[in-house]
Amino acid sequence: MPWAYLLRRVLVSIPVVIGVSAITFTLMHTTGGDYVPGVSDDPRLSHAAVEAIRHEYGLDQPWWVQYGVWLWNLLHLDFGRSMIDGIPLGVHIADRLPNTLELTLTAIVLAVVFAIPIGALSAIRRGTAIDHVFTVVSVGGYAVPEFWLGLLVILLFGVEPALHWGAPILPTSGAASAFGGGDVLDRFSHLILPASVLAFGYLSIWSRFSRSSMLEVLSQDYVRTARAKGMGERRVVYVHALRNAVMPLVTLVGLELPGLVSGGVIVEVVFGWPGIGRFLYERALAYDYTTVMGLTTFAAVLVVAGNLLADVVYALLDPRIRY
Amino acid sequence: MIGQGAVAEAARLQAGVEDVTARPAQSYWRASWQRLVENRVGMAAGAVVLLMVVIALAAPLVAVLVHHQYYEQDLDNNFAPPFAPNHLLGTDELGRDTLVRLMYGAQVSLGVALLTVLLSLTVGSTVGVMAGYYGGLIEDLLMRLVDVVLAIPRIFLFILVGILFFHQTSLLSLSIVIASVGWGATARLCRGETLSLRSRDFMLATRSLGASDVRLMVRHLLPNVLPVLIVAASLGVGGIILAEAALDYLGFGIHPPTPSWGNMLSNAQTYYVHSVWLVILPGVCIFITVLAANVLGNAVRDAFDPRLR
Asked: Contacts of residue B282 in chain A, CB cutoff 8 Å?
């Protein structure tokens, strides 16, 4: 691993992070100005008290000082603190990131586990009824709004069963029961619906991809060779072809890794999942500017870091990549 | 086989030159359009999109005909199910007519889709062509800006820009929000195309005739980038409609009482214990429109994409 390449990639990433911090700061400064949510309009607070709070957040400073402080803190991985509760954002993130990762990671694993056999089956049975069914479902899957699918699932597994049989089949809100919940089984039952909805979106893309990849592999010479030397069809398909067909999918799934933090925002909102996404949504509606700014920058830093990591890993794995 | 081929060849030559020139030269646009029209599935999807446009445009007319405006409340008839007297698709919690509201919702979805495409294409192609044409420092600055914008996860950027317009949302503001993500990808695409066109002979020829930079970019580069742009735009429409509906649902889009499919859904989820259709209908509208837009987009790609030729 040439260190010069690694160093160059890291150096190229730094302006991107600074650019992101500038954009988020500009947008939030334009929208928020020196407004402190819940405090600025409170008639019970004296002017001096409001000014004191503004001073505490540094909102009375000129914008370049504010940006300088913000950038300086970012360099120390300090993403600021909430304007509503004053808690450092790092604490909020540490609180919610595990929930988000639990949801998105489950969804991605679920999607991969189903996408590969569905794609392979469609490719092997190309042109048959089962191939057409999967094609229609996948094309439809592209077009279904994620939040609507979530609402329908809640209706089907939560509202209707509760109406007719007195209890929902599966819990439809939160990551654990409020009373006496939190054990593995309880968390798992809460995870099933949101993770499935999130996985469905990935599935409709990845199953198509896995189908076309499998089709390509099946027409390769080495597959014909394997058949020609009398190898059983099962062994040809499942050992020789499938293995090679899965490789491009790995790259595609790798590209989705930034989605680990940001991919589930809408599903989190629909299912009341206590993750980063729902937190962002709630705080954005409450005008918690510093939190929105910090969370966005945090997510962007992860994206940049993820791309960097992917580049380095590819360079390590693929001997054809030279710098 | 060989003998037969030779005989056929000789017969073809004897038949004269007309046979060879029987098919007139077709321009790229004409040929592409022909391919698109011949794609039946694509044309069916196009018909559905057209129908949605008609529905959107006819909304004010239908509102007059059925004597219900989208904001008009009919509190005696709230939560009327579909096919109720006076309300073909039922009413919501304030007795507002669902049919009329859905039709106005189509205006929002399609209007935002159109505006967003125009915005992303205009900004994206300007940035991309300029970056590719000038190269050097200008290219570096512009493309780093694109890198920065694309580094922010879509939904985060939507919410970030969405707050900016929170108090005065309109079709235009929503389009700006969604295009704030879309222009980056367009710019990258245009830059790539421009780079491959820049060194072609026709560019050198035009430049040596004394054409200015602006003329080279607008009259010579842009028309050549256009096919790729059209394909990218038509493939993106479905995603824009979905994004718009999601923003409405989250509350960063069109605010009530102006109906949009997204905010109707967000409103309806409170009532689906007794009024399921309020949740079903707007979702079906989004689904059909996005499905048709995607299928049409694929057909346009198959017909127009020069890289598939």
From this structure: 148
